[in-house]
Amino acid sequence: MSASNFSLSDGRKVRVLANEDGIAAAVCEEFVAAAKAAISAKGSFSVAVPGGSIVAALAKVPKGAVDASKIHVFFCNERLGEGKCYKGAMKSLAEPLGIPPAQVYQVPDGKPEDAASKYAALMKGMPREIVGKSISGMPVVDLVLLGTGEDGHVGSLHPNKAEIRASGSGKAVLPINEGGKTSVAVSLDFICAARKVVLSAAKASRAPMVLRALRTGSGCFDCPASMVCAKDTTWLVDKESIGEYRAKGVSDPPVAHLKSFWDIPGMKAGVITGDLCWALLRFAK
Questions:
Q1: Alpha-carbon gap, residue 44 to 165, rounded angstroms
Q2: Residue 199: which H helix or E strand, with range?
Q3: What is the signed CA dihedral for 125, 129, 130, 133, rounded to 10 degrees?
Q4: Angle (nearest 5°) at CA 221 between 284 and 169
Q5: Within 13 A of 1's CA, how many CA atoms are on the CB side?
């Protein structure tokens, strides 16, 4: 890991790239590395992708970089009746790499409750070498790719909405019906069960969100991105989006291993403010 990259005390890794183009290239690198590892280990690779700039970035994955016949594509979210994420994945990923169309699993149309139930059943019914299962029966894909919004949303999990508040329910796919617009989205439970999750955040407009999301032990419904913490979680940021985090000089000591709160770096008798408060709260947990 280069000098500009770092790890958080909760295990999340942060890669700092020069700009948005650097993040796009890193998305491709992470995709190829995860695919090669999974195919080597079990003969297949499963990935859940969103729409927009993340899946568009995958168009630059070099053809032949991985065995496309072993790739299985699922979706983090989809607007019912439109299929934008599916169309984007076919255009930017499946067709350029030569992934068999039958291995790009489109979300079915219909009522959101029915579509969510069918899509969850599809993933749960896949052979284990394609989609694994957690102890609780949650589908486990090899890689989840996520973009982030300035408000901290990931996929279709928006701040303080019912879908992010469903975390812990054990549901893999959630129905959404808001203002007559229907869609489905994978849950935070599904995301955090993945073998690896990669989130991206570019530009200064996301700097406040990145500052909020990277504070360890502070995940909350008001910033869904802050709650994403899979076994292997990597953030891709650029110099602008990490700017406020760096400027604040955020302290992130591994408090779980300390014997006493007096061992927290910077702790002393008197008024406790800022990052010391976060560290003390995490120690108390």
A1: 33
A2: strand 197-201
A3: 50
A4: 95
A5: 12
H or E element: which one contains 185? Answer: strand 181-186
DSSP string, 169-183: S--SEEEEEETTEEE
Average pLDDT value for the chain:
90
Q: Which H helix or E strand runs over 97? A: helix 95-97
Report the C-alpha gap between 138 and 132 in whole angstroms: 8
**Can you give the pLDDT at residue 15?**
98
Q: What is the pTM of this model?
A: 0.88
**What pLDDT band is residue 259 in, cutting at 50, 70 and 90?**
low
CA distances from residue 20 to 157, 201, 259 in whole angstroms, order as listed: 23, 8, 42
Residue pair 104/134 in contact by the 8 Å Cβ criterion: no
The pLDDT assigned to 104 comes to 98
pLDDT score at 282: 46
Cα–Cα nearest to 248, from 220, 226, 273, 285: 273
Structure tokens at 131: 């989609």
3-state secondary structure of 223: strand
DSSP state of 62: P
| Nearest to 106, CA basis, from 70, 71, 78 | 78
Confidence check: pLDDT of 253 > 90: no
